[in-house]
Amino acid sequence: MELAKGNAEIQVGIADYKVAASPNRLITLGLGSCVGVVLYDPVKKVGGLLHIMLPDSTQFNNVTKPAKFADTGIPLMIDEIKRLGGIPSRLTAKLAGGAQMFSGLDEKFVLNIGQRNSKMVKEILSRMGIRILAEELGGNRGRTMIFDIASGQVTIRTIGSPLKVI
């Protein structure tokens, strides 16, 4: 994992994560049923942004991208934050995404993946003792998540809505 220098805006892809220190910003696009997880150490001013697609890696035989899943991606990102000096007991979380992007279809067909992603992320964070400070979950529209590490502020851009700071 490379640490960006200076005041960069670092893109986080789908099924990926990035960690960085202040004054960098992390941004991820395309949060539909996916969930964006921001973890932040406000004392050290380091944090990460994870863009998960699925809740549980145990349903798959060969996991080549652990950041794709909540159960493997969150611990992986915490390890990277620790390498930057972050302390797990100080971490707080902010969440966005988990939408139902295919409304109108048979619910059995779409498997409520956004809802399942959100639930799994919350369960994992709870087990790890990480407090969720804010969330922008559910609905039926895509989101962009922008994490300003200097301030800890997360801005959510939702299609058809004004910017929201959480």
In words, what does this structure look like?
The chain is of the alpha+beta class. It has one domain: 2-Layer Sandwich (60s Ribosomal Protein L30, Chain: A). It contains 3 helices and 10 strands. It has helices spanning 70-83, 107-110, 113-127; strands spanning 9-12, 16-21, 25-31, 35-41, 46-52, 92-97, 131-137, 143-148, 153-158, 164-165. It has a 5-stranded mixed beta sheet with strand order 1-3-8-9-10, with no helix packed on it. The radius of gyration is 15 Å and the shape is globular. The two termini are 27 Å apart. The model has no long low-confidence stretch (mean pLDDT 91).
Task: Describe the structure concisely.
It comes from Desulforamulus reducens (strain ATCC BAA-1160 / DSM 100696 / MI-1) (Desulfotomaculum reducens). This protein has 166 residues and is α+β, with helices and mostly antiparallel strands.
Number of domains: 1
Cα-to-Cα separation, first versus last residue: 27 Å
Count of DSSP E strands? 10
Number of alpha- plus pi-helical segments: 3
Structural class: alpha+beta
| Biggest sheet record | 5 strands, mixed
Approximately how much helix is present in the residues? 10-25%
Shape: globular
Find the CATH topology.
Answer: 60s Ribosomal Protein L30, Chain: A
Q: What series of H and E elements makes up the topology? A: EEEEEHEHHEEEE
Percent in strands = 25-35%
Going across the major beta sheet, what is the strand order?
1-3-8-9-10
Main attributes of the structure:
166 residues; alpha+beta; 60s Ribosomal Protein L30, Chain: A; five-stranded mixed beta sheet; 3 helices
